[in-house]
Sequence to fold (280 residues):
Amino acid sequence: MSGPTPGAEPGPWREVAAGVYVCRAEPAAVNLGLIVGSEAALVVDTGSSPAQGRLVRDATSRVTAVPVQAAAATHWHYDHCFGMAGFADLETFAHESVRERLMAPETARIAADLGVEVHALAPPAREIAVAAAVDLGGRRVELVHLGPGHTDGDIVVVVPAADIVFAGDLIESAGPPWYGNDSYPHDWPTTLDSVIGLMTEKTIAVPGHGDPVGREFVFEQRGRVAAVSTEIRRLAESGVPESEALDAGSWPFAVGHVADGIKPGYQQLVSEERKSLPLL
Ligand SMILES: [Zn+2]
Fold:
């Protein structure tokens, strides 16, 4: 791999709300968060390798003297989760689906491509089904699974007192959101409705990639994400085969971002049909 490596030093922390910081880490320009309480701190997303995770943890001492108590991954993707091993002696949180994801052959392939030793990756110590809370000393952090979307295990990290939400890759502002073979195109809009439900007009949302945004932005992106779902449904219902859907469809995002979402979008419609009861 040329250019920035998954073991590279993260960029500088920028304060985005009182006691809440964001830095950017390569190679995916992912946003990593740091939430500081009076006694402890929590890191949101951990970087792209165990080595980068350790660097992120070390870098917290540049903005706070309180120790890191916990780290949370918003989802299993490498840029968010592969650094978790750097926090393995602390409380580590992720959705309950993440452990299995990290043991899957796909993860081994991704790690090999990055030059990361797959056996060095660490699963979360604390698995979230619905929600968890952490007290950092005068500052409560909530970790919530609002439903599937970008993946089946997206976690949103909420700091109520700072009026800020870390949305992971449910939202992106550096470019369109990414659809993968592990995305849930038809659930994503509803999950974003729940994110919007956590926000007021003053709330800041930190996306997985790109600058922090406000509720208007999330609302607009939710509309486009819903349009992708509607378009997949329309194509499937009009008999367009999955293999032709990308070319035949009209998409609200660059096709490269949507392409890998077509297959799960079609498959999830089929499983929806199977679930429905015969009414007549
Ligand atoms: Zn992702």
Remarks:
- The pocket of zinc ion is lined by residues 75, 77, 150, 169, 208 (CB under 6 Å).
- The mean pLDDT is 96.
- Residues 7 and 222 are 33 Å apart (CA to CA).
